[in-house]
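Title: Comparing notes on inverse folding

I've been comparing how different people in this forum approach sequence design from structure. To keep things fair, I'm posting one structure and asking everyone to reply with a full sequence. Here's the target:
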């Protein structure tokens, strides 16, 4: 295990800061503190936790300039993108849980079937205990703080392991939450690489939440399975965008450019497969190229741009491999392959097919492959021909048609006539189908994913229950009558007669 990691400015290549990695015993001590703190934090009221969420929200707003500066240095992103995608989306979710926490997690009364008519039933939502959040590097603020805040709101303590690519942002998150005056041990950060993550899992947290690549998800799941630790995975995508001839073409073009190239394509819900109806494909592609060529690419001397550098330098090689594979199999590039430092200029490919890596493997870079389709059936078939199922978008002025197609797409999330923004709606659950993930976060469902449901029944009967020992022939006949009455088609009058008789026996 290496002894340090570095945060490197992807624009200048300079080391921002080095971080010493913890020894195994230090990791154990941190998790132990988290476990001890979970005993009291889990007992705090929902109202108290809502107040803490409000405090975190206010601190993020007050520290906005510093937060934006840190994220920009760590990732090289444009300022607007940091504020809109990393910060604004995070604040919206915090505010949602701040205002709705009590409604979502309060004791929930449930119906009780007639056969248990003297019982009451309810569900409590209780925290797991210690949650390990493993965050990625592409959105190091949003994708670290949102699961962290959600887990805290549900009554868990959190150990956050930021990505080893963006530890500077992880340190900033730690400082932000320190200002919220959370009780000692409730939130802690452990800097490190994948090996450190494995060491934390060996300390047996009560749940692991990972955002990352599919292969990373498999490793984490395998490690956690040794102690049956529940794992929630938000993984990669190969998201299709389907454009029909009745779409608003100019808007769809702009949507494709933004969806495919925002954050230089380093986005799990970016447009990675663009399917355009044959009748408009040529015109659409010409407009697409014009839009792409108008984008402002950043450089070392400017922070005012639209496309930043590749945050992780090795990702350039991944994109190059897919680009060259496609060209070797007959694809045509409508843009020049060009890199300057970590800046990778956007690429558009045509004449692609599903034999190419670029249509099968996650790209995570500024490359848009365009493929035609003939009709709805073919579009759905192409979109579903993937081992991923994270996000998709359908573009058509015929909303009924678009809804029908959305229902047939094998994906956890879908947008009609827009891209990307659905992850910013805190009222909706977000998660992937197929190999794109396990579980959801965001929305009521996402909050409950950080809890364990406890079902409780209260029996108000004062006498022996009919199903208790001893078993008798009379009890057998009663059970038979109960089954026919409750679940058979015996007619209304006979049902009433039987129920009256059974009521006397069930008292």
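Reply #1:
Here's my take.
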């Amino acid at each position: 295990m290496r002894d340090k990691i570095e945060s490197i400015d992807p624009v200048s290549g300079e080391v921002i800061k080095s971080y010493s990695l913890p020894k195994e015993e230090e990791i154990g001590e941190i998790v132990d503190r988290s476990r001890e703190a979970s005993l009291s934090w889990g007992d705090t009221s929902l109202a108290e936790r809502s107040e803490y969420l409000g405090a975190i929200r206010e601190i993020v707003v007050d520290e906005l300039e510093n937060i934006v500066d840190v994220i920009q240095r760590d990732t090289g992103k444009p300022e607007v993108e940091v504020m809109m995608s990393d910060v604004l989306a995070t604040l919206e979710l915090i505010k949602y849980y701040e205002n709705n926490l009590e409604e979502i997690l309060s004791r929930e009364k449930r119906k009780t079937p007639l056969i248990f008519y003297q019982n009451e039933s309810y569900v409590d939502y209780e925290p797991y205990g210690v949650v390990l959040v493993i965050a990625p590097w592409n959105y190091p603020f949003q994708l670290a703080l949102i699961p962290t805040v959600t887990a805290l709101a549900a009554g868990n303590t959190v150990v956050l392991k930021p990505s080893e690519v963006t530890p500077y942002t992880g340190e900033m998150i730690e400082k932000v939450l320190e200002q919220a005056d959370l009780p000692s041990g409730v939130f802690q950060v452990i800097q490190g690489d994948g090996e450190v993550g494995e060491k934390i899992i060996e300390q047996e947290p009560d749940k692991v939440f990972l955002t990352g690549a599919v292969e990373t998800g498999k490793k984490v799941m395998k490690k956690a399975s040794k102690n049956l630790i529940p794992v929630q995975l938000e993984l990669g995508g190969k998201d299709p965008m389907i454009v029909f001839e009745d779409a608003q073409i100019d808007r769809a073009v702009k949507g494709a450019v933004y969806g495919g190239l925002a954050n230089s394509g380093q986005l799990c819900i970016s447009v990675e497969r663009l399917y355009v109806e044959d009748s408009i494909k040529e015109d659409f592609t010409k407009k697409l190229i014009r839009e792409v060529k108008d984008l402002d690419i950043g450089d070392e001397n400017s922070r005012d741009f639209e496309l930043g550098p590749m945050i992780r330098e090795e990702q350039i090689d991944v994109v190059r491999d897919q680009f060259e594979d496609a060209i070797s199999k007959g694809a045509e590039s409508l843009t020049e392959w060009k890199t300057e430092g970590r800046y990778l200029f956007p690429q558009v490919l045509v004449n692609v097919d599903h034999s190419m890596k670029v249509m099968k493997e996650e790209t995570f870079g500024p490359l848009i492959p365009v493929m035609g389709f003939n009709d709805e059936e073919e579009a759905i078939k192409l979109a579903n021909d993937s081992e991923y199922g994270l996000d998709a978008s359908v573009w058509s002025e015929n909303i009924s048609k678009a809804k029908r197609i959305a229902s047939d797409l094998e994906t956890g999330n879908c947008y009609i006539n827009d891209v990307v923004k659905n992850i910013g709606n805190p009222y909706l659950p977000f998660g992937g189908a197929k190999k794109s993930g396990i579980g959801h976060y965001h929305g009521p469902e996402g909050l409950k994913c950080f809890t364990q449901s406890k079902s409780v029944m209260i029996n108000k009967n004062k006498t022996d229950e009919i199903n208790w020992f001893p078993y008798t022939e009379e009890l057998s006949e009663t059970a038979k009558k109960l089954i026919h009455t409750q679940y058979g088609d015996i007619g209304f009058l006979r049902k009433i007669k039987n129920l009256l008789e059974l009521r006397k026996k069930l008292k």
